[in-house]
Amino acid sequence: MVNNIAQQELAFIKKVMADSRQILIDDGKSLIFWGILVSFGLIVTYLSIAGKWHVTPGWFWPALIAFGWVYTIVTEIRREKKRSVKTFAGKIMGVLWFSIGVSATIFGFVGTISGAYHEVVISPAISILLGIGYLVSGLLYGKTWFALLSIGWWTGAIVMFLLLNLETLLIMVGMMVVLQTIPGIILYKEFKKEILNSK
């Protein structure tokens, strides 16, 4: 009886991991998009605060993140219409990253507007959230290297919390490129090739 239950649970886990392979290409694209978008926002913010380029942060970040959300929602709706099969792994991944996105948005705007904390805390806090997303996603993908990226996010968060200065914006840009945009490109290329080979 116990062995039978264990086999059923193992079969379920394997199915979830197999299903997750079908949604990797979409997630790769999302990682690339948000990596570039947020990096752009951080660079503009850094230049603005450093006095090299004037941008009013009051409208810049809300407009940038609103654009990101609209683009993501519209793109996801289109992808859902094209998907012939909706997998449980896809639902888990969607809920995971949606939750992280909402949490990061709330942390980025509500906390600073209320004065609960300084804006410099945003980057390390969001890095912690991303670390969770990468660890869980890596396990679902069955890709150890992807899960290990969480260590980079959490290490970066610790460094930024210890520094708490303007340069943390540039550190976050580097992390968005190395830990998000490049892995997104790798995932996209890898699974695009796999799909082509399977045809």
Please characterize this protein's 3D structure:
By secondary structure, the protein is mostly helical. It has one domain (23-198). It is built from 7 helices and no strands. The protein has helices at 2-20, 24-49, 57-82, 88-114, 122-141, 144-163, 168-198. Helix 1 packs across helix 4, helix 2 (24-49) packs antiparallel against helix 7 (168-198) and helix 5 (122-141) packs antiparallel against helix 6. The longest helix is centred in the C-terminal third of the chain and has 31 residues, at 168-198. The N and C termini lie far apart (40 Å). The model has no long low-confidence stretch (mean pLDDT 85).
Give the uncertain stretches in residue-range form. Answer: none
Question: How many β strands by DSSP?
Answer: 0
What percentage of the residues does DSSP assign to strands (E)?
A: under 5%
How do the SSEs run, as a string of H and E? HHHHHHH
Give the count of structural domains: 1
Radius of gyration in whole Å, from Cα? 19 Å
Mean pLDDT, as a whole number? Answer: 85
Helical element count?
7
Q: Approximately how much helix is present in the residues?
A: over 70%
Distance between the termini: 40 Å
Please state the overall shape, judged from the principal axes of the Cα atoms.
globular
Structural class: mainly alpha
- Could you give a short account of the major beta sheet? none
